[in-house]
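Exercise 3.2. Students should predict the tertiary structure of the chain below and write it as structure tokens, then compare their answer with the key that follows.

Predict this chain's 3D structure.
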Amino acid sequence: MAWNDIRRYGSGIGIEIRGDDLRVVAVRSRPSGVTVLGATTIANYASRPAAEWGADYAAFARDLGLGHVSAAVCLPRQDVVLRQIQLPPMGDKERAAAVRFQLDGLHPFGDDDVAFASAPLTAGLEFTLIASSETIEGYADLFGEAGVAVASFTVAPAVLRTALRSRWDEPPHPLLIAELRGDVLETYGESEGRPLLSAEMNLRTASAELAVGRALADLRLEPEALPVFVLAGDPPPPTDDEEPVRASDWAGQDASPAVELLPAPLESPEGFDLSAWLIAFATALEGACPRLGLRANLLPEERRQSDSRWLWAPTAALAALLGILAVGYAVRPMVQDRIYAAELQTRIDRLDAINAEAEQARGRTEEIRRKTATLERLAARAQQDLRIMSELSEVTPDTAWLSLLQIDDDGAQLTGVADRSAPLLSVLNDTRSLQAASFLASLRKTDEGEQFRIGAERVEAVSGELPALQEEEPSAQAEATAASADEISAEAAPEEEMAGEAASSDAAATEQPPAEAPAAQEVQP
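Answer key:
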């Protein structure tokens, strides 16, 4: 969408001061076209109380839903002086100062205070409106008394330029619009050589054909150029025979309808004639789309009223933003607390996982330590057992031999045969590893000697409980115990032979008993 299309959006009310009447037109402008919402005439406004006709205007605007819209007012041409000033290129402030500097020589109001408005027409050409301050203040007071909100005071040439550009980005040149008001013919034109032409002629002193011809000459047309000519306003006066006069015959030019140049209304009230209401229609477009025109406004800034709903848009946007900020400020703690709680829970879960891993590692460490301690106790026990077996092999007399040796955590149990068993108790008590030796069973006489069963306690008890040994995987202690038992059996063999020889001297002995090797050591956990 082009920028000009955006500027064609708007709704406005135009008021044309036409003699003793006010012509009021309301329009809605869109890039697709213009809709005339309503049109009315307020008759004899100058002779009626302002509050009375102001109420009529307010009812008209309110019925159309435009009670909030400020109107654009087109002042009578005779109350305003229009000038076009040549200026060198300069900024806005310098241009306004240059116009003000030349102002005294541009108007016929003498020493009276004047109001002026200017706008750049082309590069180096300034469009300037000048009016008596008293006149402007009078109109402003009148509309203010009537309760009519006014946004701008302008003139017919300015509103026609806006109306043309509400349809065209650049109107077809050359063009000439003639508007008849009673005995006065006002012309507006544009051409390549004349950016803006505005003239007014009294038909009492010149014919319409002459007035139109002068206007065409002022447009500085090329010989072959044919302008688009539009005749609007009041119908031409009839002839003396009361016969209607064709516009082409009256003006001396073939006239085109107003819709040839201006936007044709998409919709309009019944009986609305664009040619007759041309200036009021153009003024309404000036109010709806002021950015399309020159924006030369004679109404003092302090008296302008802009009640368009769009003016409330920034306030509404700021209010909405403030509401959003207020809601956000109210909701922010809850949202932040929820996010903070979720983040804390995430970190707690992460730390719980780390703690669980640490507990598992601690458990594994304790298990390893327990197994290590068990292995250390097993190693210590094996050494003690080997020391016991070594001492027993050294202190056992040659007249005794063992058939069974049992070593456990509490001590040792010895089962065997000896010539004399009683001395064995003192022998065992004198060892470094055993103490408190005693007979576990009564002695029994056999042919080989006294069969005994002796128990003795360890001097240093094995601390802690040891796990049961696996039968299929004998420990190093069991293997060492078995090896020691084999050594004891080998040492006991000569003693058995000597005991056999002693027994042969006995008359009752008839046969040498076979040597009986001691059984392998049994280690019980």
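Discussion points: The radius of gyration is 65 Å. The chain has three domains: 1-170+261-307, 172-259, 384-523.
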